[in-house]
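Write out this protein's structure.
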Amino acid sequence: MPRRLFRAAAIDRNRFVALYAFIAAALLLSAAFFIYDATIILADRTQDDTSVAVLEAGNRVLHDLENLETGQRGYLLTGDDNYLQPYRFAVRDLDDAVLRLHQLVATDPRSTALVGRIERAKNDKVMEIGRTLDLARNGNREAALALVQTNEGKRYMDALRGDLGVLLQNWREVRRVAVQDVDRRVVLAATALAFIAVLVCCLLVYSLFVQRRAFALVHAYTDVINRRATRDALTGLPNRRQLLSTLDALAAESQVLPRRIALLYLDMDGFKAVNDTLGHTAGDAVLRALARALLTATREGDLLVRIGGDEFVMVSFDFDDDEQLRELATRLAASVSQVGADESNGCFSIGVSIGIATYPDGVDSIEELLDAADAAMYEAKRAGRTPFAFARRDAKKNVISLHRR
C-alpha cells in the first residue's frame, strides 16, 4: 500500500506540476497577446484620432476658402466693407489651418504631397482674390469683374476642392480601417478571454479531480496506518495501544453512564517450550491458532486483544455475575488446551492462567483493571489449582503495577 500510494502521489505531483505549468504558460501567453492587442488598438485609436483631426482641418480649410469667395462676391456687388469680414477672418485662419494639416499628415508621404499642392493652390487663390479686391477698392470695379470672369479663381478653387476631396477621402478610409480593426480586435480579445476562462475552468476542475483522488489515497493510507497502529501484525487482533485507548474511553464514559466491565488477563503456560524446541516460526503459527480459538470463544461485543508475546487480554461487558465470568474463563482455557492438543501433534501441553478484575465491584476505577487482572493472573499461576483467579480489593495494594507503554 505505501509503495502504491507513493507511486500514485508521485504521478499526481507530476500531473499537478504539468497542469500548473500549462496554466501559467497559458496565462503568460494570454497576457502577452492582450498586451500586444492593446498596443495595436491604441495605435488604431491614435490613427482614428489623427483621421478625425485631418478631416476637421481639411473642412476648416474648405470653409475658409468659401468665406474668401463670399467676402469677394459681397464686396464686388455692393462695395460695402462689411462684406469683407469673412474674407479677413479666412485670410488669418487659412495659414493656421494649412499648417495644422502639414503637422497631422507629416508621416504620410502621399498626404504630405497633397497638402503641398493644396497650400500652393490656396496661395494662388488668396492672391487672385486680393487682386480683384484691390482693383475694386481703387475704383476699377469693371476690371475686377473682368478678372473674375477669366475663371482664374474658379480653376484654383476647383483644384483646391479636388485635392482636398482626395485628401479627406483617403483619411476617411484610414479611419474606417482603424475603427474596423479596433472592433475586430475587441471581438477577438473577448473570444480569446472566454476561451481562456473556459480552459482555466476545465483545468481547475481536472486539478480538483486529481486532488480529490490524491486525498482519497492519503485518507485510505491513513486508515491503513491507523489500523496497523492498533492491530497486532501477527494475529490481526487489536493490540495494546487499542486496549489502552478503549480503557480510556470506557473511563470517560463511566463518569456519565457507569456499567459493569470485566478484564481477563491471559498468560499461556507451556508456550515457551514450543519456541525453544520448534523455533519462532512454529511458535508464531501456534499464536495465530490460539488467537483464532480465543476469538471463537469470545462473546459478541467483547474485545480480545494480544498485548505481546503469549499474553492476551479480554474486555467483557454487561455480564450478570461472576459465575458468567467463570464460565467464560473455563471456555477460554478449554480453547487453549484444544489448540495445544491440535498443534504439533499434541507434543506440547499448552495451558493458560487467567486473572480476572471487575469494575466497579472488584476495583475502584477502570484504570486499575489491567494491573489488578495481571496480579490476579500471577495468583492463579502460583496456585495452579484452577486456570483463573479473581482480583481482591485487599490484595491490590501489594501488587506491583504494570506500566503502560
